[in-house]
Structure prediction request, 204 residues.
Amino acid sequence: MESFDHIEVGGGTAALPTISVQAGVAAHVADQRPEQAVEALRAIKAISGEACRELRGILGLLRTPGSLETPSQGLARLGALAATTTSAGLPTRVVVSGRTDRPSPAVAAAAYRIVQEALTNALRHAGPAVASVFVTCEPDQLIIEVVDDGCGLTEHSRARPPGSGYGIAGMRERAEALGGALAAGPGAEGGFRVRVSLPNRGQS
Prediction:
């Protein structure tokens, strides 16, 4: 079992919700806590810069048929994501067990996006809370749980329309597109829990 504690930032278009949250934090605390506003603005700069680099990489793939390069997102970047949400006000830890080289790039990327959306929802709706991300790489499936000890998601956030790319509906669609499944609801001891299982189609 290993824990990620290095600091980077994950990017791509899915970084936009986190940028929005950080901007809201900066606007809210600018007058009374300028130092926290500065930290939020630094996070926005880092996240947006990584997002631009990632989008340039995707465009490069589209322009170069047959290229074997893939966008640099997956399980190895969950520690960076945890650092970002921690700086935004949601202390987050990531614990990984099993062989992280088992999932295919598509499965690993989907897992990253789902965790990112789950943590963004927690940032928006959990209130003061601590979050944990548990990743288990089994021979035939990848299991991820994102839990927090906050007040839970609001009915409004649960009702986001399918296909919006955010919220539970978007996470479920992403999992089901790969033959996986997602369950979300209040945790046994309060807070909120998202659990996703994705078939392992990587190395054996």
